[in-house]
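Per reviewer request, we include the raw input and output of the structure prediction for the construct analysed in the revised manuscript.
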Amino acid sequence: MTAGIVLASTSPFRAALLRNAGVAFRAEDPAIDENPIKSSMVDRQPADIALALAEAKALSVAARLPDALVIGSDQVLVHDGVVFDKPADLPVARVQLMRLRAAEHSLLTAVCTARGRHVRWSFIDEARLTMRPFSEEFLDHYLAQVGETVCRSVGGYQVEGLGAQLFSQIAGDHFTILGLPLLPLLEHLRREGAVEA
């Protein structure tokens, strides 16, 4: 058995996924600056960026808690070869959602575990989402309803809520879209003896 499971994240969404799945854990802020990692990987594939960010988060917390099994996860949105960041504010979110309107984009979600200074396991999954050609009036109504919460996700939406109305088609694992490929992670935790098999 491990000394405990730690989620290297302040995301309430990832925490809720683990909690709802019955995993006992505690959450710790990874306190990493993502910008230097992203800047150093401008010529790399988006999946590599997502994995590097997930590993950096896990290793940051694992260095402080070397006996724990630390989970790190991150997500990258890609549209027309452009990697998007979380919108800084509502006007930026509006511009981003207009760019994604009536088009397909990918969410690449990476998850890994680390103990001490070593990554023990990693997994990357992709989901493809197509936004419908919504009106600007609908978009303004949507943003007024959800407010600053759009800035918490890289897509500027939450498909588990009102954001579902932005889409015409979604292909991929629901947990991947929410930011944590849960089923592969649970299988790994069982193999590690971290949760009941």
